[in-house]
């Protein structure tokens, strides 16, 4: 059937342009879906496949087949591609730092870059995924945080935060200890993995071991198709842009920390009595460290 023949996949070809250029080759039902995507790319990013199907009065399977038709593995892949394309102009918005800039101008540009990273990350957070992440924390007996390199610092910060609300949290800086601990987890436990690239070998190995042990897995990673985002149960995405003097991974840590903070506040509100008791115990203990 003409409507089910996959189109050639081109990673550099923007999704909306790809759909528009092939519009005439689609069946009448496919054209309805195509027009909806062209007219509502931002809505697609924040909608589930069932919401889109309901809006169009078609079956979810029809939407899924269309995603395959235009070269994606499914609806989630289409969403990621659209989101990446929509935030691509960040690279033009970020002001380039020049050698002629003085200290104040450089500081201002760095702050603006961080603000833009936070705004764009906030705009692409998927509400259903975020809610599932909160629920996973609330249901977990034990939470382990993993990261390599710069991401390890974020994982350590997250472990410190959630320790304050009375949860059993763990962080290991050594990759061998990480994978050893992951192998001992159970279905009652949760693993949170930080990786900007989503392709760090150590983190992927830990994710696989944790899943084999039955633990729930959450990734906080860059908005892109990556091995990690495909492997975990829940993926929360960040957006950041790279400039000549500021790496993409460096900018993303601001967004990663903010996602951790948003999770922490949500979970603390749902565990208020436990958090209050835990914080009091910690304050009493820490007071002994002060003169």
Task: Give a quick set of tags describing it.
291 residues, alpha/beta, five-stranded parallel β-sheet, 5 strands
Write a compact overview of the structure shown:
This protein has 291 residues and is α/β, with parallel strands linked by helices. The chain has 15 helices and five strands. Helix 10 (150-163) runs parallel beside helix 14.
Topology:
Layout lengths: L14 H7 L6 H12 L1 H5 L3 H8 L3 H10 L5 H13 L2 H4 L9 H22 L2 H13 L2 E6 L2 H14 L5 E3 L3 H8 L6 E7 L5 H13 L2 E7 L4 H5 L2 E5 L9 H23 L1 H16 L4
Parallel strand pairs: 1-2, 1-3, 3-4, 4-5
The ordered H/E elements are HHHHHHHHHEHEHEHEHEHH
CA-CA gap between termini: 79 Å
Strand content: 5-15%
Low-confidence stretches: 1-5, 7-13, 89-94
The computed structural class is: alpha/beta
Major sheet strand order: 2-1-3-4-5
**Quaternary structure type:** single chain
Give the overall shape, derived from the CA principal axes.
globular
Give an overview in words:
The protein is an alpha/beta fold and 291 residues long. Helix content is 59%, strand content 10%. It contains 15 helices and five strands. It has helices spanning 15-21, 28-39, 41-45, 49-56, 60-69, 75-87, 90-93, 103-124, 127-139, 150-163, 175-182, 201-213, 227-231, 248-270, 272-287, and strands at 142-147, 169-171, 189-195, 216-222, 234-238. A five-stranded parallel beta sheet has the order 2-1-3-4-5. Helix 8 crosses helix 14 (248-270).
């Amino acid at each position: 059937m003409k409507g089910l023949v996959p189109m050639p996949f081109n990673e550099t070809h923007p999704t909306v342009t790809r759909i528009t250029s092939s519009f005439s080759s689609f069946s009448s039902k496919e054209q309805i879906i195509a027009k909806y995507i062209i007219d509502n790319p931002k809505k697609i990013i924040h909608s589930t496949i069932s919401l889109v199907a309901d809006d169009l009065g078609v079956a979810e399977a029809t939407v899924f087949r269309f995603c395959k038709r235009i070269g994606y593995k499914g609806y989630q892949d289409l969403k990621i591609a659209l989101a990446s394309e929509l935030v691509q102009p960040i690279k033009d918005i970020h002001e380039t730092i020049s050698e002629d800039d003085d200290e104040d101008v450089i500081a201002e540009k760095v702050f603006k870059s961080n603000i833009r990273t936070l705004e764009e990350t906030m705009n692409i957070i998927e509400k259903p995924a975020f809610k599932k992440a909160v629920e996973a924390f609330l249901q977990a007996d034990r939470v382990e945080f993993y990261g390599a390199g710069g991401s390890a610092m974020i994982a350590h910060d997250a472990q410190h935060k959630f320790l304050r609300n009375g949860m059993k949290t763990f962080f290991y800086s050594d990759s061998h200890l990480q994978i050893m601990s992951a192998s001992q987890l159970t279905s009652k436990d949760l693993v949170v993995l930080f990786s900007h690239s989503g392709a760090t070998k150590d983190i992927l190995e830990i994710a696989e071991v944790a899943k084999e042990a039955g633990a729930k897995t959450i990734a906080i990673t860059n908005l892109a198709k990556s091995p990690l985002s495909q492997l975990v149960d829940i993926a929360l995405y960040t957006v950041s842009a790279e400039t000549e003097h500021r790496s993409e991974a460096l900018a993303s840590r601001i967004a990663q920390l903010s996602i951790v903070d948003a999770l922490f506040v949500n979970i603390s509100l749902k565990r208020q009595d436990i958090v209050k008791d835990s914080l009091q115990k910690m304050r009493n203990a820490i007071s002994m460290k002060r003169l």
